[in-house]
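Technical appendix A lists one of the benchmark inputs used to test multi-chain prediction within the project. The record comprises two sequence entries:
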Amino acid sequence: MRGRVLASWLLLGMVLIAIAVVAAPGSSYSNQDRDLPLAGSSAHHPAGTDALGRDRMVRVAAAYLLCLAGAICASAITTAAAAGVGTLSAFSPESLGRLGMLVCDVFLALPWLFLLMMVRSALPLTTSPAHSAAITFLVLATLGWPACARAVYRGACDLRNAEWVLQVRAGGLRGRQIARHVLPNLVPLLIPQFLICIPAFIIAEANLGALGLGIGEPLPSWGGMLLELDNSAMLLQTRWVYLPIALLILILLLLEAIAVEA
Amino acid sequence: MKSAVSLLRRLARTVLVVFLVVFGSTVLIRFAPGYLSDVREMDARYGDAARTELSAEAARSSSVRQMLSTEMSAWANGSLGLSRQYDVPVLELVLPRLAVTGSLMLRAIVFAWSLAVGASLLSNAGRNPSLLWQAPTTLLLAVPTSAIATICLLAGSGGPVLVMTLLLAARDFKFLDRLLRQAWRSPHLLQAKAQGLTTLHLVRAHILPNVASQLLALATLSIVTALSALVPVEVIFSVPGLGQLAWNAAMNRDLPVLLAVTMIMAIAVTCVGMASDRSADWQGA
């Protein structure tokens, strides 16, 4: 419990620092200082600049905020969808419940990354960076719910067979009222699902971005910044190239710590 | 007789899942906002007439029904469709790469299981979960596959097999460690240990039969995880396998190839899942 609280405070502190860095006057993730490409640490650019002369600290801060916000939204959508499908499948007639789980099986049979690549490659050639970010996380949310839905379904089935639910159903409680009573009892199951999905989505975005299929430039993202590691000449010139990957690992470890203890 | 009916039912379910996967993927692709745009339209070498023809060709194959029938007939005649990028049957591209990917996955899974089983047995020798084993696995799981592959490539040590082995071993270890710890602490085993039964006998006669079904589920999960890690690993290490083919197809909007590779992956996952369920049933019986 102490570890979870500490990890939450650390993440919150990092969010505040990132907001301060991004909102500082004159800082922009896309501003290019053409005289200083791949510069080292200086008073003006504390973490140096990238190959295009953009401030690395601002870009890392913006990537952190963007990916965290995107992953949280995607996770919320996934959890809500999983709660809906899982609960409906458990409390519907058996044939409908089986159909719901068959849909889950269909999604689970498809390896995530291949489906993501398929959808990303079918986007218009002129997709704007903001749209590409929204679509990336929306696709992650669309593909992430079946595993959660299976867990929710099992939990909802246990509840369906619980004596108090049998009693209220026998007493004539209607579907909507059942949902009102059942969903709060599923919250202890939904919260870990929500927390587990956040780091999973951040990793998925980083993997997609590293393959060049993630969020479009000039918007900063973890995946986009991992692409810098491919350039060995750049690695010899400045050690600050490792900052994004180091921070990404730290953030993922903190998120994992929160999820594991939930 | 009952067993045969159950097997047939499972087989029917697998076929249905595969068909729904084909249908779902086709619908997803068709309604993706950029489906009708072709990367060749941006190529300056194509004249206006050619571009008009490309648009007309895309419009002609725009109905889901037509896409599905084209897809089915391509699978029925064994060509798996025609690659837009290379203008050859997809099967010609897939076959040589299937062996490369299969060999990479097989080696990675065998090494990962050996590593995970060894580590979890050693970890369980202690009284409490050891940080020595837990910390590296947690760290490995927190690093994106592409980053591990890039770091290995830059360091000049380790190849695709090592990266996939590490990733799979970390996932398998987390599960195996918990599973063995629970099994090891069950009351009947504590009593057997107190009576002086050897560890080897306990593992062979009591632990393995009890955890066999979970191990089969974990084996399925290993294959799914390996398939997901395949793309970044093959792309970064330039391994000419199915993952690299899929990535190339995605970058060049070669949807027939991408769809065929995704279908192959889906069929593999579904069949492995069915085999795992069936074996678990036999174990249960």
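The interface with chain B takes residues 102-103, 105-115, 117-125, 127, 199, 203, 206-207, 210-213, 222-223, 226, 229-230, 232, 235, 245, 248-249, 252-253, 256 of chain A (CB under 8 Å). The CA atoms of residues 79 and 235 of chain A lie 40 Å apart. Comparable benchmark entries are summarised in Table A2.
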